[in-house]
Amino acid sequence: MLIAVEGLDGAGKNTLVTGVVDELTRRGAAVSTFTFPRYGSSVFADVASEALHGEHGDLRESVNAMALLFALDRADAAAQIRAALTESDVVILDRYVASNAAYSAGRLRQDASGDIVRWVADLEFGRFDVPVPDQHLLLGVPATVAMERARSRAATDPSRPRDAYERDDDLQMRVDSVYRQLAAESWASPWIEVGTDSPESVEPAGLVARLMHE
């Protein structure tokens, strides 16, 4: 099973992934994980990050150019994901194609039915042939909560300064709206929304039972 975990910056995706991995491992499943963007191991992700922190001239201004960099990062990892799927029972992706769709749509002030969402899907699932998730998980904490968590994280961890997307509260609100639209229409695969109060409210055992259709 290939599971993509989505949500705003600061929503608590790492907390959720850790809990689900621990529960699956406790049940005896072999689990592999990937985190996108792959900062530090992908030139495409690193260039995107540098652009989001003010480098590379006007690169950041192009929605399509930034989306392409994030898509190339996943295309570069596609063979590794497929290999993990043959070796593991479950592969969990912390951010995936839906992030590109939601953030690109949010930047262009489009909704989930907009041209950019179709472009991202055609590019990544089509031309780049990255694996399609079997299941999406949306960590649906309120956008205001996620943004405050991102601010607090940056204030206490000098290695995690907020990038241009994270500093744009209006963008985060629009992205949150697109994520919820994608979930409502089961974009690319079924979606489960969890953690609507906080990421800590998710009970990993119960969530894994839902994922395994128990």
UniProtKB/TrEMBL annotation:
CDD domains reported for this sequence: TMPK
InterPro entries: P-loop_NTPase, Thymidylate_kin-like_dom, Thymidylate_kin_CS, Thymidylate_kinase
EC numbers on record: 2.7.4.9
SUPFAM superfamilies in the cross-refs: P-loop containing nucleoside triphosphate hydrolases
A Pfam family matched in the record: Thymidylate_kin
GO molecular function, one term: ATP binding
Domain Thymidylate kinase-like: 5-184
Catalyzed reactions per annotation: dTMP + ATP = dTDP + ADP
UniProt KW keywords: ATP-binding, Kinase, Nucleotide biosynthesis, Nucleotide-binding, Transferase
Enzyme class, first EC level, given as a word: transferase
A GO biological-process term: dTDP biosynthetic process
Gene Ontology CC terms: cytosol
Database matches in PANTHER family: THYMIDYLATE KINASE, UMP-CMP KINASE 2, MITOCHONDRIAL
Similarity comment: family membership: Belongs to the thymidylate kinase family.
Function: Phosphorylation of dTMP to form dTDP in both de novo and salvage pathways of dTTP synthesis.
Protein name per UniProt: Thymidylate kinase
Organism in which the protein naturally occurs: Gordonia sputi NBRC 100414
Native organism taxonomy: Bacteria, Bacillati, Actinomycetota, Actinomycetes, Mycobacteriales
Name of the coding gene: tmk
